[in-house]
Specification:
The protein is α+β, with helices and mostly antiparallel strands. The chain contains eight helices and 17 strands.
Length: 314
């Protein structure tokens, strides 16, 4: 089942959206109170819906009237792997010159409910079409209301927010089959060969660098230090997942034999810092190959290990 996460800035707004979701029995929708700035990271969504201006200003492309576009973020910190633009609408304006300057007025030519319905039908249809061409790319979808409510003029009132939420949830309900289809949970499932590469690449694009822990047989600190590693490449070949990493002092190749599982999650430290984890679990053994920049020889190790963890913070 796919998931849709809706971010809001207050508990009062959360109640409005939960009420609308309950009305349509949208069990695959989660409403979460959080900051719009950290929404994508806290929710680990694969695609985040953002304003058209923000999407094209940050990630390129050209806005198209009444069209929602999906763009890759290429590892920009703090963003989901994909961003989905709110479709820019065709506007009609009146311009009047007065003593105090130019006054521009927007003329709405359709009810606000119809406008909200059109926006989210366009967004969801773009995502559905994208998933048909790239299956499994977008499992967790999210939007924060601070990013999308700017397209409605009635958001200042509680009644207006209820109307917006009910309209949007009605659109989601009309496309519930897209969400309720049986698919693996991307955060925790037995991986096919290619999927492990995709998930780890996206995880490193999202968090840029990571520290490494191995549980199982004791590993010398000379092999895995506490430095930060950056991803060079990940491939799957001959039943092995091969991960190439670099730090300030060494080049590291990690070889993981299938079968294994991958789980991504977020933990909070005692100091309140969010820690982002990608765990490769259920391992029989791990092979490591290291090349230190300051030495003229390489090292190769094979040992028992049951879990390999990449750990990062923002």
């Amino acid at each position: 089942m796919r998931r849709l996460i809706i971010g809001v800035s207050s508990e009062g707004e959360a109640d409005i959206w939960r009420e609308a979701c309950a009305h349509f029995k949208l069990e695959f929708v989660e409403v979460r109170t959080c900051s719009v700035r950290t929404f994508a990271i806290e929710t680990s969504v694969d695609a985040e819906v953002l304003s058209s201006y923000f999407v094209h200003e940050r990630f390129g492309g050209v806005p198209k009237v009444n069209v929602s576009q999906i763009l890759r973020t290429y590892g920009v910190a703090g963003h989901a792997p994909w961003v989905v633009s709110v479709p820019p609408l065709e506007r009609k304006w009146t311009v009047e010159m007065g003593e105090e300057g130019t006054e521009i007025t927007y003329i709405r030519d359709r009810p606000v409910e119809d406008e909200a319905r059109f926006i989210f039908e366009t967004i969801l249809d773009a995502i559905i079409d994208f998933e048909q061409k790239r299956p499994g790319s977008i499992i967790r979808i999210g939007f924060h209301t601070d990013q999308v409510l700017g397209y409605a003029e009635y958001i200042d009132s509680q009644e207006g927010k209820r109307l917006f939420a009910k309209t949007v949830c009605g659109v989601i309900d009309s496309r519930r089959s897209f969400f309720e289809v049986s698919i693996p949970d991307k955060e925790h499932f037995q991986l096919a060969q290619g999927e492990s590469v995709v998930i780890l690449r996206e995880w490193f694009r999202r968090y840029s660098s990571a520290q490494i822990d191995i549980t199982g047989e004791v590993v010398s600190e000379d092999i895995i230090d506490e430095g930060w590693y950056h991803l060079v490449e990940i491939v799957f070949t001959g039943g092995w997942l091969v991960i190439e990493l670099v730090s300030l002092s060494k080049q590291l190749f990690v070889f993981v034999k299938e079968p294994f599982e991958i789980e991504t999650k977020v933990q909070k430290s005692e100091q309140g810092t969010l820690i982002y984890l990608a765990e490769i679990k259920g391992l029989n053994f791990i092979s490591l190959f290291t090349r230190e920049y300051t030495k003229n020889h390489d090292n190769y190790y094979v040992f028992q290990g049951d879990k390999l963890t990449f750990r990062s913070v923002l």
